[in-house]
Amino acid sequence: MNTIILGFLVLLAFSGFAFTNSFAISPNSAFTLEGSGYAVTENTIKTSEIDLAISTQKQTGSSIASSVEDGFITLDDEDFLTTELKATMLREGKYIRINGVIDSDVGSQASVSFFGKLIEESKNASIYGFTGRITINDDNYKIIYTAKLSELSKIKSTPTESKTDKKLIIHILKDSSKQGAGSTIGSVDASKFRHFSQDKISVAPKTTITFVNDDNVSHSILSGKLTGDRYEQFIADGRISTGVILPNQSIDITLNDIGFYRLYDPNYPWMDITAYVFPNVQSNVILK
Description:
Layout: H1 2-15, E1 30-40, E2 45-60, E3 63-75, E4 78-90, E5 95-104, E6 109-121, E7 125-136, E8 139-151, E9 153-154, E10 158-159, E11 166-172, E12 200-203, E13 207-213, E14 222-226, E15 234-241, E16 250-255, E17 259-265, E18 268-277
Parallel strand pairs: 9-12, 11-13, 12-18
Antiparallel strand pairs: 1-2, 1-8, 2-3, 3-4, 4-5, 5-6, 6-7, 7-8, 10-11, 13-16, 14-15, 14-17, 17-18
């Protein structure tokens, strides 16, 4: 009997299933993929960055179809927006495939084919090594990235008196107006300073957020999209505009639309929040 049990445990270990608290990728969730590396041809080597907002959808077998909702890819000083990119999580997230088309801010178009392999993971993020190609006209760049995949925090909001709306509180932290001077409390990456008490969230539609300004200067919050431009990082989309939030004051906004929101302070563009708004869907945690 002991031999049978030992054999079963060995089989589980080699099958790839582990009952641990490691990072899990599941359907109907939202993630950010952030990384950097190089794009190489026979004649040139360019630095490249990737910053994508990804929503996972239907699972078929061990693969999860996903959409790239927002983001950009850079080649040196040329910035490309994610026009028609699709992502697939393979083998419960051990691999990621990204394919599609990106458009630069000067009108050129490129095709993308990336393949990422899981390198390391913690309880709340995973590191991938990516290879693949970016093709622009006759230029064929081979890319090499290291990128971090992290899930947007699932916020348990508090019912308000209406019993239908939901509400949560996000604090604008003290000294957020000073770039790089925010808090590191709760940050996955201690080198990345935080300017809000939550900077990546996942909530249900019609959730109301109360922004509380704990800083010593005024702030304002707009919604918009990433431009990929290093100097003008966001363009407002008109969905959210708080007006001025004075120190020690607060203001409410409501996220009605399903999808991604990029919330930012136009006066301090390093201050931004990624919010994913989607109906709560119960799904099993994927064991890896």
